[in-house]
Each structure stands twice: as structure tokens, then as C-alpha cells.
């Protein structure tokens, strides 16, 4: 299980799926939406953005059984641009989508997703981090990587508290002084996610849309990946941090079917 699953809260889900689900009529609706000349994009949005990932997989199976075609490939042939990218992203099971987007990222199995924290181990980890960085000339980067990538979020929160007592500075300040480049950025991201996961994703979404142009890959990835986890909670944090709703910023920065599909995934404002 990926470590952030420990943060899942049901009220945070924006896409809960259909309570009276039947994949066959949904598959037929999609077939009719793409049959012949032209495409009914709204029908595609209405079906795929309002079904859970598991339900979309069942729709794909029904589509193949009824019409003999692969649904994802059919969508690719009928759609284009950012809208195609978003809709195709929805067709991946979560684990495959994460693998596709993060295939070159380091994977780690984090311990203790139940919430239990061993105070002794947390103190030891804090001491090991101090010994690997501030206490020596140079940095034992592997020690930082091992602890940050194999401990649970709750455990790391305790480690950070103990570390500040030992080092008289925050773990963030130590990472900034002891590392640089991509490694520094990765470690700071882990710390930020640990301290406030929803704040981190709100920042990423805002970053994707601020200024001229839109980072569509970042926008799609974060909305698709969090829509069945905690996007509602991220929306609340977004409004608190930036004084505007996520939906309003999407409306300002995107357009057409792409905008409509994003808004359907995001749901109503908090």
C-alpha cells in the first residue's frame, strides 16, 4: 500500500461512482457518443467523470464484450489534445496511472500505516539524521533517503519534532544546508507532504495554473489521482491559501470540453 493511503478520508472524495451502477448501458452510451461522424464529448464527460476507477474498468470490459473494441484506444482515436489526455488518464487503474506517471521515481514501502508510532525509534531516527548531516563534515545522503522513504507519515512527524530538539533547527533547514538539486527538492517534498498533505497538493494545483499558460500534465495528474482520495479536502485548503476556489481558477485557465471534464471531477465548491 502506498504510504499516502493512510491519509484517506471518505469526505475528501469528489468522485464516488454511481450507486446503481450497470456497465452495459454506460458502455452503450459511450459507443453511441463516438459512433459515426462527430463525437458527443458531453456524453463521455457525463459517464467517465461520474464513475469510480473500478467502475470505469468494468465499463471498458463491457465495451470490449459488446462492440469488440478497446475503449481506451477508441477514445484516443476520437478525442484530441488536453481533453484526450485527461479522459485517457481516467481509464487507467490507479496503480497503473501512478506507475505510468512516476515510472522513474524511487519506490519505497513505508512501515506502520496503522498510526502507531514507536517513540524510541522516532528518537533514534532523529539522532541518526543529525549524525548523518549536521554532526559531520559532508552528508550521509543514504541515511536521509532511507528514513524519509521508509517511515510512515505519523512516525516522521515525531521524528521531525525530536530532530528540532536535537539540532535546534528544523529538518527543512538542515535539508537545505546539507543537500542540493533534485535530491533537496525530493526530500523537501516528502517533508511538506508529511506536515500537510492537502497543503502540498493545493500548492501543486495552484502552481500548475498561476501565471501565463497552464501546466496541464501537473493539473491532470493531481486532479485524477486525488479525486477518489481527498480532493474535497484539498479544495478547502486551496481556498484557504489562495482566497479563491479551485473551480474558479480552472474556469479562468482552461476551456471547452477539457474545462468541463475537470470541473466535473472537482465537483461543487466547499
Automatic annotation (TrEMBL):
Query: Which GO BP annotation is one of this protein's?
Result: endosomal transport
Q: Which Pfam families match?
A: Annexin (PF00191)
This protein's record includes keyword Methyltransferase? no
One Gene Ontology cellular component: nucleus
The positions annotated for binding Ca(2+) are: 209, 211, 213, 253
Instruction: List the GO molecular function terms.
Output: calcium ion binding; calcium-dependent phospholipid binding; phosphatidylserine binding
User: Entry's Gene3D superfamilies?
Assistant: Annexin (1.10.220.10)
Is Transport given among the entry's keywords?
Answer: no
Write out the entry's keywords from A to Z.
Annexin, Calcium, Calcium/phospholipid-binding, Metal-binding, Repeat
The record's similarity note reads: Belongs to the annexin family.
Report the domain remarks.
Answer: A pair of annexin repeats may form one binding site for calcium and phospholipid.
In Swiss-Prot or TrEMBL terms, this protein is called Annexin
Amino acid at each position: 500500500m502506498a504510504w499516502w493511503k493512510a491519509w484517506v478520508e471518505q469526505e475528501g472524495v469528489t468522485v464516488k461512482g454511481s450507486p446503481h451502477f450497470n456497465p452495459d448501458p454506460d458502455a452503450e452510451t459511450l459507443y453511441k457518443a463516438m459512433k459515426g461522424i462527430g463525437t458527443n464529448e458531453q456524453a463521455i464527460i457525463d459517464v467517465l467523470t461520474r464513475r469510480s476507477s473500478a467502475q470505469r474498468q468494468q465499463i471498458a470490459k463491457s465495451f470490449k464484450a459488446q462492440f469488440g473494441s478497446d475503449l481506451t484506444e477508441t477514445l484516443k482515436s476520437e478525442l484530441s489534445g488536453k481533453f484526450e489526455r485527461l479522459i485517457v488518464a481516467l481509464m487507467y487503474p490507479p496503480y497503473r496511472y501512478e506507475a505510468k506517471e512516476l515510472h522513474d521515481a524511487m519506490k519505497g514501502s513505508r512501515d506502520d500505516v496503522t498510526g502507531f508510532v514507536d517513540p524510541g525509534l522516532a528518537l533514534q531516527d532523529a539522532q541518526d539524521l543529525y549524525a548523518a548531516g549536521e554532526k559531520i563534515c559532508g552528508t550521509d545522503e543514504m541515511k536521509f533517503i532511507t528514513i524519509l522513504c521508509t517511515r510512515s507519515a505519523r512516525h516522521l512527524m515525531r521524528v521531525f519534532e525530536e530532530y528540532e530538539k536535537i539540532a535546534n533547527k528544523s529538518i527543512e533547514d538542515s535539508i537545505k544546508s546539507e543537500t542540493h538539486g533534485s535530491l533537496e527538492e525530493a526530500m523537501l517534498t516528502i517533508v511538506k507532504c508529511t506536515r500537510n498533505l492537502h497543503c502540498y497538493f493545493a500548492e501543486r494545483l495552484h502552481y500548475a495554473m498561476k501565471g501565463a499558460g497552464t501546466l496541464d500534465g501537473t493539473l491532470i495528474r493531481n486532479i485524477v489521482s486525488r479525486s477518489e482520495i481527498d480532493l474535497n479536502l484539498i479544495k478547502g485548503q486551496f481556498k484557504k491559501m489562495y482566497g479563491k476556489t479551485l473551480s474558479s481558477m480552472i474556469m479562468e485557465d482552461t476551456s471547452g470540453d477539457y474545462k468541463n471534464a475537470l470541473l466535473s471531477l472537482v465537483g461543487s465548491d466547499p
